[in-house]
UniProtKB/TrEMBL annotation:
SMART domains: GGDEF (SM00267). GO terms for cellular component: plasma membrane. The lineage of its organism: Bacteria, Pseudomonadati, Pseudomonadota, Gammaproteobacteria, Alteromonadales. It is an enzyme of class 2 (transferase). It holds the Pfam family GGDEF. One of its GO terms (biological process) is cell adhesion involved in single-species biofilm formation. This is diguanylate cyclase. Its EC number is 2.7.7.65. It comes from Salinimonas sediminis. Coiled coil: none annotated.
Amino acid sequence: MQTSELLFLQIAVLGVITAVGMLFTYALPAPSHKHKASSGLYARLFLLFLWLSYGFSNLQYIDMALLHSLGQNLCATLAAYMVYLTVLKRFGQALPKTQRLLILLHIACIEALTWVMHYYTENMVFCRLLLLLSTLMPIVAAALKMLMLMNSRSIGDKVLFYILVGAVVALVLGGPVYMFALQVAADHQSFITFGIIVIAMIVFMLGFVVSVMHSLVIRLKKQIYRDPLTACKNRNYFYDVAPTIVRKAELHCQSVCMLVCDIDHFKSINDKYGHLTGDKALRHFSQLLRSQLYPGDILIRMGGEEFLMLLLDCDLNRASERAEMLRQHIASQPLAVNDDAISLTASFGLLALPAGADVFEIIGEADQALYQAKNNGRNQIIAYGQPFIQTPDSTTLPASSSAPAPGRHTELGAVPATAQEK
Ligand SMILES: Nc1nc2c(ncn2[C@@H]2O[C@H](COP(=O)(O)OP(=O)(O)OP(=O)(O)O)[C@@H](O)[C@H]2O)c(=O)[nH]1
């Protein structure tokens, strides 16, 4: 096979790889954010310009040196800027006007310098040096941008960042060797360039895809665990994540309390004011709960008007104080609807988690305490297995016969002193 045929074949194969890569990006889920959605376009343009730069690089073997240098420098620099733009758009950022002008100026300077060098000297060293610096600059800028914007907990972002750092290192160390020291026959050099470009395309596209897919997984996880009405965590979160949180707290020797609460007579709000106002009341209620959370606490809407809180690093004494404060806070913050004020109260079931407790089983006991609070007249707190009942006026009564029997969890501690003193 002749050299020209071989070159043509390599350009064609790289064209097919470019086309497949470009099609592949269309299969990626497009984010709704305008700038983020356009990152796929810039990734495709990166592939296209890299392919074109390979095409132009091969013109040197058929005596079209000026076109080769002008085309290669232009397309390789544009490909490097496409990497920068892909990163910028991945994080939803627009390209500032000044940067746009600087990029245009940079490209115009490169083309002018390339042309001048060709005109005055046969020496290609300057042209190659120019190419190396021109491609290096945008990749370094992309790596720095990535460092500033990336989510350090996202594996996808980390992969893309390390790929960019790898590209910078490869350009700095390998670029001069390849451009100035490698003395091989034309068809061999073209084949090496072909290999380098294919690797650059595959690695960059893989990094881009991993980064996009991983942020999609994070987004989906957020949605799966989020209650759309109140923006609290939902029951899925309780099933999937709560056991891990409790186990971690136990490992750090922290006590954990579970507080379930339920709005009293919520049905009558729906019946009297309608479902939309009922929804408003749920949002209002969840905000009241959220406003009383401490860092590390977890608030979950278990369904309907029932919420669950995991109070971390909090013993039963402190939890009963906090539940009482919460109860009073809810009762003192009616929901304003038109000219009306809908007063809300809630009933609470409280439980300190024994070491090694299964949260899925223990929630049944917290629910029993909650039902007890409802049966006792609502707007009160019952601690499961504790011989006291918290009444609406904050006085503590000894457990009546209707209170939950001190049983499996009496070892959790004595009646909270503060509650008894009140
Ligand atoms: N507006 C609205 N209502 C809901 C939602 N989820 C559940 N509900 C209603 O919440 C009401 C719950 O009623 P019940 O379980 O009888 O409880 P309650 O009226 O609060 O009475 P107690 O809990 O015994 O004090 C039902 O009417 C449900 O339709 C929701 O997302 N929005």
